Automatic annotation (TrEMBL):
GO MF term set: ATP binding; carbohydrate binding; protein serine/threonine kinase activity
Record-listed E.C. numbers: 2.7.11.1
Membrane-crossing residue ranges in chain numbering: 251-274
Name recorded for this polypeptide: non-specific serine/threonine protein kinase
Location(s), subcellular: Cell membrane; Membrane
Protein source organism: Musa acuminata subsp. malaccensis (Wild banana)
Membrane topology note: Single-pass type I membrane protein
Keyword Transmembrane: yes
Amino acid sequence: ACTSSLSFNFSSFNQDTNSKMTFQGNAVIDNTTIQLTKDGANVAGVGRVLYNEALLLWDAKTGELTDFTTQFAFLIHSHEYNYADGLAFFLTANYSSFGTPVYSEGGYLGLFCNSTIINSTINAVAVEFDTFSNKWDPRREHLGIDVNSINSSATVLWNGSVIVGRPANARVSYNASTYNLSLFLTYERTNLLPSSNYSLHYIVDLRKVLPEKVAVGFSATTGNFTETHSILSWSFSSNLQPKKKKLTARLLAGLVVVGVVILMLVSMVLLWLYKKMENHSGTETDAEDMDYDETIDHEFETERGPKRFPYRELAAATRDFSEERKLGEGGSGLVYKGYLNQPKLDVAIKRISKGSKQGRKEYISEVKAISRLRHRNLVQLIGWCHNRGEFLLVYEFMPNGSLDAYLYSTKKHLEWSVR
């Protein structure tokens, strides 16, 4: 089993502990302590104990690394002047089912295999309490931090008080933010010995040297010389907490993306509806104009006089209603000068403004009224045109101005017969 946090506390040990731990090699429970190596002439001995529940060291999905702290009290006692080899707290990728590594007695502290005998790579990170100086060690008893090798990455000299068997209290902690693996060791003052403290640390990203799930425990060994190794108490706590900021940022990014997609879809639907309504409105307007044109055609065809002109003919006569052909502007439209090829005649063409309902009414009324009138002094309505919303009136062109210009001009007087 493996959870995001691991926590336990053993102030002492008893037979019930067997269900929570795995014992390997020489390790046993002796009264209220865990005895890792046997008393007496137990040369080349190995003992290990591992907590059954694995530690989730880091999360592969998020890359988050756990903090952890473990505290334990231990005792190493030689009973003689010659002793070896030491004890270690470790994290390893090799679970309890793999058993104790072969050829790991003596200076290998039950952690790593003797590389001169067997070629094996074991992933383990350990804090060692080494009582014997091997060829790869400092020349005295020492504390060390091991990373995938028995050759320590960091060491500090240590007076282990092995001969007198003095209890020690150790705290090993790991800071996931700084990658700092640290050890603090203290001996309480006794009647014979003063208090003493030791500390050691090493920077290591455990994600690069260990898998997600690891086992935690203790190991101890003897070599040609012996000593006993006892664990008196042990507590451990970890808490793998995913960073809320990262999760919040990812969630926020996801919500933004979803929001943008929804907004785009809604915009597309609204645009489609607008286009559909616009096309429908345009179709209705065209149909309305066509019906309107047919009604006007029916009314105008009953009148006599003015004729209907094709729109293209009037557009050609005014050069497509160009600006230079514009004569003036009225309330309901513009007036353009034009020239008709058939009959060959200069004309004035009034173009009713599009959308002018009043202009349309005036257009119909003017065609009906003027077409009935015939007088030599009235401007003659020659014709008309309406085509899909365009309403045009064609008059005879008067090059000499309007009637009021003649009536009120001081230069020339109209005779009464003309009037």
